[in-house]
Write a structure and sequence with these properties.
Distance between the termini: 48 Å
Strand order of the largest sheet: 2-1-5-6-7-8
CATH topology of the largest domain: TIM Barrel
CATH class of the largest domain: Alpha Beta
Number of helices: 21
Largest sheet: 6 strands, mixed
CATH architecture of the largest domain: Alpha-Beta Barrel
């Protein structure tokens, strides 16, 4: 029997290949005669949220000619379209599938019609398994047309798209890391996701629609997987990426104690902690059990009790709990960082400023203020039913509010003044998707820290040459007026006009 050759291509900036590895493992379990390989086209060092380029020449060294190509990406921009066109040249008979976050966007049908044969909505294990079974019988086109999990060329616009997700993650086998053809990770760190789904039903999020209720691998399965990845593939460092750390206390305590008992492996990070589930016992254990652990990453969504009630359904924002946990963390010499969404529909400027003042009154060392944007099929999206123009105007407004919040936080926080905004510049220089946001950060940094060396700024900006190329001459001239640094000005011009 001829084997079906499947190639998955990672076009995201994330170090994690979990989604693609999970689909491959699940399909190998239930479909005979299928070979998978996963390749990343990111050229150079892999780094989370850093600027990168795609190297399509990697495709010349593949061990087989694929029958099916699945692409995972966040957005389909000009850069991704060049890769797609190259794939069609190299493998003209391959069936091209789009997956990942990009299939949830408003324009996904248009993109799929133009560039792909089909797009998979939601978690991919079950629909991809069903597709492969139909493909092997040459009935895949009929299957795609009738399936609620797939968007296909010239689909009926009224076709209802629904996800079909796994509720028992232990049904997914341990990943076969040998199918990663060019995973370049000099830090010998494996990034893993052991849970998925919605745990809080926030109004702005569509996670429940895409992935269902929050579920996780069993504790025993997680421990066995980590030991196999360490013994079989040589990984000593692990980073668990979760948006719901400690919402199941017993489960997480078992994982932390596992790393405490196995000194040969290290847990470097855990993801986003839920402040309502934290206490002093947990913080002490984290510090004792994980020698490399030193930071709590928290979120604050909804900048007032009014907005918190709208977004979370709760009557009171737990400000006292945040204050308590941050003070307890300081006792354990644990720093705290925050991510905060700013600019929800109906949010007032005073509420955005309140969030910034509150966070930095607590001595938060670093915070990311992210502009709100509509996620299709989220409760707030369904309620407001925004047009495309309304979506763009909402994002513009929230971007401005986020900049104001950042400016206020910088005014109130001595940490940034003492550190010359270095952490802020490092984080803003990785903001690939919105150069307006990055440039505002830099403007404020320059205005508030006149002694900051221009060269230090461009240590970070050199990774963002493409963004700098798109900057207007007015912006470049404004940089020059702020710094009165002629070399700085020439560098900007050189990048804009003479860098490929």
């Amino acid at each position: 029997m001829k084997k079906t050759k499947v190639l998955f291509i990672n076009l995201t900036t994330f170090l994690s290949f979990n989604g693609l590895l999970s689909i491959a493992a699940y399909c190998k379990k239930y479909v005979d005669g299928v070979d998978f390989n996963i390749v990343s086209l990111i050229d150079g060092k892999v780094e989370r949220n850093a600027k990168f380029k795609f190297n399509v020449n990697i495709l010349d060294s593949l061990p087989f000619v694929p029958d099916i190509i699945g692409i995972s990406c966040l957005l389909v921009t000009k850069r991704e379209k060049i890769v797609i066109q190259e794939l069609k040249k190299k493998f003209p008979t391959a069936f091209l599938i789009l997956g990942g976050y990009s299939t949830q966007k408003r324009y996904s049908r248009k993109i799929i019609n133009k560039y792909f044969d089909a797009g998979c909505y939601g978690e991919g294990e079950i629909p991809f398994k069903e597709f492969l079974l139909a493909y092997k019988e040459n009935k895949h086109l009929e299957y795609l047309k009738n399936s609620e999990q797939w968007i296909t060329k010239n689909d009926d616009k009224n076709k209802i798209i629904k996800p079909n997700y796994i509720t028992n993650l232990d049904d997914i086998p341990t990943y076969d890391l040998s199918i990663l053809l060019n995973y370049n990770n000099p830090k010998n760190t494996l990034y893993l996701i052991f849970d998925r789904g919605c745990y809080n039903h926030c109004a702005f999020c569509n996670l429940g629609r895409k992935s269902g209720e929050w579920v996780h691998l069993s504790s025993e399965r997680i421990k066995n997987d980590i030991l196999e990845y360490s013994n079989k593939y040589g990984y000593n460092n692990f980073a668990i990426d979760s948006d719901a750390v400690f919402n199941d206390k017993e489960h997480w305590l078992e994982i932390i104690n596992f790393f405490k008992e196995n000194k040969q492996i290290n847990l470097l990070s855990l993801g986003l902690f839920l402040v309502e589930y934290l206490d002093e016992e947990i913080l002490i254990l984290l510090k004792e059990a994980l020698p490399n652990f030193g930071n709590l990453h928290l979120s604050l969504d909804g900048c007032s009790e009014r907005m918190y009630k709208i977004l979370k359904g709760n009557t009171k924002i737990p400000l006292k709990k945040y204050t308590e946990i941050i003070q307890l963390a300081k006792k354990q010499d644990i720093t705290t960082t925050f991510q905060t969404i700013i600019g929800f529909p109906g949010e007032k400027l005073t509420e955005s400023i309140f969030a910034a003042k509150f966070l930095y009154s607590l001595g938060i060392q670093n915070s990311v203020f992210s502009p709100f944007y509509y996620l299709p099929n989220s409760p707030i999206y369904k309620k407001n039913k925004p047009t495309l123009i309304q979506e763009k105007l909402t994002f513009l407004k929230s971007s401005i509010l986020a900049e104001i919040a950042m400016f206020v936080s910088m005014k109130y926080c001595d940490y940034y003044k003492n550190k010359e905004y270095e952490m802020l510049l490092r984080s803003s220089s990785r903001n690939d998707n919105n150069f307006i946001v990055s440039s505002f950060y830099i403007y404020f940094s320059l205005m508030n820290c006149p002694n900051l060396d221009s060269k230090k700024i461009f240590v970070y900006l050199e990774r963002l040459n493409n963004n700098l190329k798109s900057t207007s001459l007015f912006d470049i001239f404004f940089f020059f007026l702020l710094k009165r640094d002629f070399k700085f000005f020439l560098y900007c011009l050189k990048v804009k006009f003479f860098t490929k």
